[in-house]
Amino acid sequence: MAVIVIVGGQWGDEGKGKIIDLLAEKAKVVARFSGGDNAGHTVINPYGEFKLHLVPSGIFYSQVTCIISNGVAINPAVLLKEIDDLHNHGIDTSRLFISDRAHLIMPYHTLLDELEEERRNKGALGTTRRGIGPVFADKVARLGIRAGDLLDEDTFRSRLSAALEFKNIILIKVYQVSPLSLEEIYDQYCHYGEQLAPFIRETSSIIREAAIKGEPVLLEGAQGALLDPDFGTYPYVTSSSPLAGASCIGTGLGPREINRVVGIFKTYNTRVGAGPMPTELKDEIGDLIRKKAREYGATTGRPRRCGWFDTVAGRFSVQINGLSDIALTHLDVYDGFTSIKICTAYKFNDEVLTSFPSDIAILEKCQPIYEELDGWQESISGIRNFKKLPAGARNYMSRLEDLLSCPISLVSVGPDRRQIILVKPNTLL
Ligand code: GDP
Ligand code: IMO
Ligand code: MG
Known about the structure:
Structural class: alpha/beta
CATH topology of the largest domain: Adenylosuccinate Synthetase, Chain A, domain 1
Strand content: 15-25%
Bound molecules: guanosine-5'-diphosphate, 6-O-phosphoryl inosine monophosphate, magnesium ion
CATH superfamily of the largest domain: Adenylosuccinate Synthetase, subunit A, domain 1
CATH architecture of the largest domain: 3-Layer(aba) Sandwich
Number of helices: 12
Largest sheet: 10 strands, mixed
Number of domains: 3
Number of strands: 20
């Protein structure tokens, strides 16, 4: 293990939390590099079940330094609650650090996310309403407030008053709602600042020094490739890049430091929120997958849309992330399926497409072309040896590897940390 980036390969919720909790056993540093508390990473280990929104999934090991890097947008209230919950479970957070460059989610960001979604009405994007679009828009508009600003009350006050003056004009004149109070936000965030001050510092140096020493570092992605603002199903995307490339900008590490890039893929596809999903199953098979795998959002509780594995989208994800390995999760969910479909191409009018279109107007009209494989009947959740998997499961994996042009190194057969199969003796663990 050296520097490994771990990213979602589909539309999020692939099981990143589980895989990072497993791989972190050997890590020295685990750093989240993008997104915000729109993420919900489930970890099930001997300490209990956790849904982490901001804290890296390596927090359960005493040797790991956990970093919320500059690429993450932080809602201080959510982070403080998460730290509190971890303390209540006996988890030590003294090795958690927050980048002073990370942008803060302010009350007007969550309010504007709500108001913008309401205004879009039937065209709503189905955001998590956590203020993600507005906070990243402010970052590039140079109106943002960063964690480090909380360390100096005068700097914080002047940045807040400049931003709020503008936000209140939008709230009053565009949305016709009441303005927000400078004093209330100032007092509330100064209080958060006092609580978070011990965690806030320059963090890129910690990650870089570990990488230079050859210590194992994991860079934890959030969301999934198809939600990327550039390469995803725009405009039905999130507002920071979930791709492996963003792990450099989101942490301050140079691209030459990255040794492996692991994409997490579910055995099928899911999506929460609006936007095209060619293999979506609006039938009893989709309902069966949702029921068996409890496919409900870890952040919003919304039912996830479920469908067959889409290798057109998957291949694109392998390419735009430059994946070296795949970790395939949820293979157990197909236990008892007599046959399994894989989407190998799309039919668009009279054309057969094998590459992922950049225009959603095309993607929305694409019909999946399926290949059908035999399933397996036995339960695989107790299996730990690749050779003991039923032939149907091994054939399915091998076909996915061919279609995606990337090796599967790890297979997850249940939500618990121990429910894992190493495909070959491998260097990820
Ligand atoms: P993340 O956002 O990528 O970390 O994924 P989520 O935590 O949002 O969603 C993954 C869900 O699948 C969680 O409920 C996990 O506990 C569960 N899970 C992870 N791996 C497996 C697996 O191999 N099999 C099954 N059945 N569930 C899994
Ligand atoms: P993890 O890290 C699944 C989706 C939302 C919506 C779109 C935009 O747990 O995989 P946003 O609130 O980001 O502006 O919403 O992105 N979305 C996710 N879907 N998993 C996530 O994170 C997601 N984070 C955002 O549902 O469709
Ligand atoms: Mg999730």
